[in-house]
What we know:
Largest sheet of chain C: 3 strands, antiparallel
Radius of gyration of chain C: 23 Å
Strand order of the largest sheet of chain A: 1-2-5-4-3
Oligomer: heterotrimer
Number of strands of chain A: 7
CATH class of the largest domain in chain C: Mainly Alpha
Number of helices of chain A: 3
Mean pLDDT of chain C: 85
Number of helices of chain C: 17
CATH topology of the largest domain in chain C: Cytochrome-c3 Hydrogenase, chain B
Largest sheet of chain A: 5 strands, mixed
Number of strands of chain C: 8
Amino acid sequence: MAEADILSHIETALPGTIQEQHSSHGNDTIVIDRGDLPTVLSQLKEHPDFAFNLLLDITGVDFFGKEPRFEVVYHLHSLTHNHRLRVKVRLTEESAELPSAASVWKSADWLEREVWDMFGITFTDHPDLRRILMYEEFRGHPLRKDYPVNKRQPLVEERDPITNPWHKG
Amino acid sequence: MASSIGQYLKHAKDAAATIFEGMSVTMSHFVRKPYTIQYPDRTAVRVQDTLPLRYRGILEVDLEICTGCLACERACPIDCIVIDAPKDKVTRAMLLSRFDIDIAKCMYCGLCSEVCPTGSIHHTTEFEGADYSLESMIRRFVKDPVLAYKAKKGEETDPLIAPVLDRGMEFLAEWAEPVDMKKYKKEQEEAAS
Amino acid sequence: MAEAAAPLLRAQKDVAEHDPTSEIMELQMGPSHPATHGTIKFNLTLDGEKILNCAVEIGYLHRGFEKMCEQRTWNHCIPYTDRLNYASPLINNVAFALTAEQLLDVEVPERCQYIRVIMSEISRITDHLTCLGMAATEAGAISVGFYLMESRETLYDLVTAVTGARLTVSYARVGGVTHDLPHDFAERVRAAFADMRRILSDCDKLLSKNRIFIDRMSGVGAISTEDAISYSLTGPLLRATGIPYDVRKAQPYSGYDRYEFDIPTGTQGDNYDRFSVRFEEIRQSMRIIEQALNGIPSGPIRIDDPQITLPEKKQVYGNIEGLMNHFKLVIEGVKIPPGEAFLSVEGANGELGFYLVSDGSGRPYRVRVRPPCFFGMAALGEMLRGCLISDIITTFGMVNMIGGECDR
């Protein structure tokens, strides 16, 4: 399948889910509603014409001062067809949560933990949503634009690894 | 049974052969030239002299040709260069009253020497920067305020400054310069025809 | 001291109360274990020496790379990218510059593309040599480690001759590279490669058929193809499971479609396959460099656009236009039009991607790195399930986690 018609092909395969689509700098992008996210992602993975089996990346962007404030960006690659797609979900600050993709791709587990850690975007039904790069007692979400660069964090007490393990379960 | 004995013997043969092969490599190192050198006193030439001119060691400033344009101060990503360049109240000429580089902070990225228009600030091949206090890691290049260099339209004629400027240009020649694409394409076409 | 002794006392109490041989044990390995070259912590659940579960904790080397880049101009980010995968900094430089150029919709001159390919491949070789040398050392073959370091050193001499630094190269810029190749570069590379081929064949003799080494590596840390894809593994880890996916072939960048090279693959997805894939990739990289050196054209190595690259030094004090362009670039940085771009290159450990968002000012609005090691670490627990404690070291070595990149 030629790369140019992925977007129109997705439109016919998943009618009514795509809010916006464009193609810039060689990246095809679709914007979808967060309610459609689980069906769209699993369709994109399972459908033999798309077969986006490799989840390259999940990340967030904070457009502070604009509405909706957050964007969660998924980058997908297909090993069989060798094409790529960017899927975006827009979220407002008040309801910064969206369904998890951890059941579709195992790597989504850690990637979503990072997005939660850095942006404070909650993934519902995520198996184990906790901080990954920062420590448990860290306050705030560092990659939000309203988090000051030179902000200091309070000192935390040393954690006893036996009585208070970081990893629960 | 026979096959397992055969397998066992084959493994034993393989093991002996690979050990022999490996040991021959190890033994050959007895007669090879050693790669390591004893630093610093047993080297034939100073290590600094073997490094290429573009090696990014500790920064140095030639104040004679510093124009005080503050490009290096702006280009530094971690603000380790501090320059004060006030104007002389009487003559209205630009003075350099302070040029400090904190080499403890410097990460030797070369962004400052890349933007210097005269090659005044440049990296030397010196890399041994150990010292006893953080304070002494700050290199202060200005002792007494000096006049900033003023670039001339043509060739530099001052016999004291010309060699320094030539040296600065030598450092600058190491950095890539954009080539005039139109001229380059024309030359290519001429060469082709 | 009292805090340090507390777990020990508790363990002694446990031994007194229970039969320790029948018990599932929790062991915390790291974050600064001498055998793991990176700060990372494993929370192990052990049955004797067998690993029942391995929960990996990362983040000990988090420096806020992405936040730092948002405060700086585009070219200021280049030195920061050196510190991502410090075993192959040139690939990170090139990846960042390529993504920024994609946002600008410009293409660098042909000679610059060749130089970037040559330097990336040299970097890939140094990364693989480091990985293989360290893995061999940790498995007990210390002399192999030293031999590989020796050949790495000859390559670092080349990198120094081109970029001026061994590791912190800061070589690429948005719109080109900083230095041209020295005039005797091709001969030096050929001499270094002759040396390296000898060392590689030595190490091949010492390791690849060595029974002890094969027993340590073969069948250890294996992962199935389906799991590897589901965990988004790329690079040598995915290729070891038998999938010939290489960004250089799949989505060619910087003119990689000009060169002929093979993609080595494994079959089992275990440590020995990863080792063989990396070993073979060194040879393929040498092939690419030799082709590139034969075909490299002369010409400019930077885009000639005063909005992107610095003007000629003669122009700065020679005419007013050059002066303005120079200082505008120094003070404000490259102005990249608003937009977003994702571009990935084949890093030494897998697919290294940059997702850049620009808002039109001189600074990046958002810089996101897709670090290949991050996914390897996520899959490590899966790889190690059922293995022994000693297998952690070899598996961790072959996944080749680089803290600077994984934790950013």
